[in-house]
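Structure tokens
________________
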Amino acid sequence: MPSLTWLTRDEDLKRAAAVPYRLLEADPALSHGDPATGNMLIQGDNLDALKALLPYYKGRVKCIYIDPPYNTRSAFEHYDDNLEHSQWLAMIYPRLELLRDLLAEDGSIWVSIDDNEGHYLKVVMDEVFGRKNFVATNLWQKRYSRENREAIGDSHEFLLVYSLAPDRFKNGRNLLPLGQKQRAVYRNPDDDERGPWQSVSLLAQGFRPNQMYEITAPNGRVHVPPAGNCWKVIQSEYDKLIADNRVYFGRDGNGVPRRKEFLSKAKGLVPWTWWPHEEVGHTGEAKNEVNALFGAETSFGTPKPERLIERVLHIATNPGELVLDSFLGSGTTAAVAHKMGRQWIGVEMGDHAVTHCAPRLTKVIDGEQGGISQAVNWQGGGGFNFYRLGEPVFDEDGRIRPGIKFAALAAHIWFSETGFPYQGTADRPFLGSHGTRGFALLYNGILGDKRMSGGNVLTNALLASIRAAAGHDGPLTIYGEASRIGDARLKAEGVTFKQTPYDVKAR
């Protein structure tokens, strides 16, 4: 498969793996509402933040939406959108790699972009996510009036969509609800007791011998498929439609037969790639939304309208599922996800994580009525925890830093051993089982012994207590400071002992 080449490509392909695992440190003063919701607002470089999330959320994110810098050679107040092309590629590539690792198999990633980097982004995403996993390029009509400053006016942006399993995404994605325009085509000219209906063609392109029969209309006129067409159904199925009063020949009974489809049975509309501003909003609407929240003097320069993000999340997620935006900007994705009952994680590097995102989400929790609030009947509630990036778990030499808590190291060890996110309580040495093998960690006084090395040394008695408490008698990997059990006994017990910090992988 073709790939892009740029000045620092070889180094950039290794950057995601080289990023250190960092701690996430909560700031209760900037958190708001119910802390148990699991919603996270993280301030810090999103490359570091995504790596910090991996041990907990790998393969768990149902929908990723990002709105990265467009590289438009313009200076924006809240971030630098003037990256040279190779720098832009160096920025986006490792972040996409980590986002791929966080994405659920049946999930989807949506990336907003314009013409400046859109076509290069498509090639990069083909490489990172796999060309076969491309779903669509949606066009968002961002303007409602003509743009006359350029040779050809710019009226749209792109939304690239990928999924790790496109067939699963297709089967699980949601249809769009019928709007007023679609409902208007449903009528009931024959007073059918089943309610309003619309007629759809009974013709299909192609030739199938068992779908080439004659149809006689109520007035006696005989209909046959025109050249190059056949009926959509075989004659026995057509007879069932007739018996069920589901074939319409027009008001005078002389028209080409059409099938009746009832509004009560309409499931919705298959999404398509043209997203007009009447349906999902425009840049002016987005600007008004953030102006109402922050005032025109402190507003954000390039927001997306809440209706646009609502469309994405409606298609891609259901209530309770996890949404991630690692270029959170003014906080729109998190605000919309919250109002729609989704769990969310937002990452923003700049000061406006504090000046814009946290205040906006606080207002949402308190019942803010802008954007989509009235459309989804938002009344407030929920909460989020604010985090900053802390120090790396390991120092430059790969040693565990002093002061690292048991839960942080436990999550890292579990992830490095199993490749799966850690979802345990981290309140005892036994971390859990993966397949037939169990994993345990003796570290930082987890057994209640706060002395130096207290409880961190494996003994026969401690091994027996770990097995008894866990109810696990199969193979066991135990991390600890030292072992007082001989190699022969460890082998007989099916125990693999790994010494901290030396056997703990820093990457």
